[in-house]
């Protein structure tokens, strides 16, 4: 069978079309990962905002209880309130760092998926060309 036969040209065209679609899918995968990372960032920002509000409410309630009890806000009471605030800050900072890490992981996964699909498209292209050149 000739490499220029209709059947071989159809296989070549089909293989090339498949390679192009696979390459484009890689770009779409990366775009979707960027969108997902952006959504994750927004969700985590909202979670951090809510955590900060909750921490401030609890801190205020603790200060109000201490003040209402007639205990001076010094010594162990003051230390406790300071430690409570420091722990809240640590939790908030950890949430922000873990959110950034999650966002970076999602983006990296998208880039890896893009590379895998696009490298796969090269294989599809060369497979189509090889089959065409070999006559099917």
Provide an overview of this structure:
The protein has 136 residues and is mainly α. Helices cover 90% and strands 0% of the residues. It is built from two helices and no strands. It has helices spanning 6-68, 75-133. Helix 1 (6-68) runs antiparallel to helix 2 (75-133). The model has no long low-confidence stretch (mean pLDDT 89).
**Residue share in helix:** over 70%
Mean pLDDT score:
89
The count of DSSP E runs of length 2 or more, i.e. the number of strands, is 0
CA-based gyration radius: 29 Å
- pLDDT under 50 segments (min length 5)? none
Which class best fits the helix and strand makeup? mainly alpha
- Beta-strand content estimate: under 5%
Number of helices: 2
Distance between the amino and carboxyl termini:
8 Å
> Can you write the helix and strand succession as a string?
HH
Main sheet attributes: strand count, strand direction, barrel closure: none
Form type? rod-shaped
Q: What's the gist of this structure?
A:
This protein has 136 residues and is mainly α.
Features:
136 residues, 2 helices
Protein topology:
Layout: H1 6-68, H2 75-133
Helix pairs in contact: 1-2
């Amino acid at each position: 069978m000739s490499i220029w036969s209709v059947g071989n040209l159809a296989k070549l065209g089909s293989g090339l079309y498949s390679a192009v679609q696979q390459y484009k899918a890689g770009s779409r995968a990366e775009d979707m990962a960027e969108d997902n990372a952006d959504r994750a960032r927004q969700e985590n920002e909202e979670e951090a905002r809510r955590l900060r509000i909750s921490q401030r409410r609890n801190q205020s309630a603790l200060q109000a209880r201490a003040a209402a009890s007639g205990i001076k806000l010094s010594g162990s009471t003051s230390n406790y309130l300071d430690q409570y605030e420091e722990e809240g800050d640590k939790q908030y900072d950890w949430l922000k760092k873990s959110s950034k890490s999650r966002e970076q992981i999602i983006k990296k996964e998208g880039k890896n998926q893009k590379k895998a699909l696009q490298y796969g498209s090269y294989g599809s292209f060369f497979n189509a060309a090889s089959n065409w050149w070999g006559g099917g």
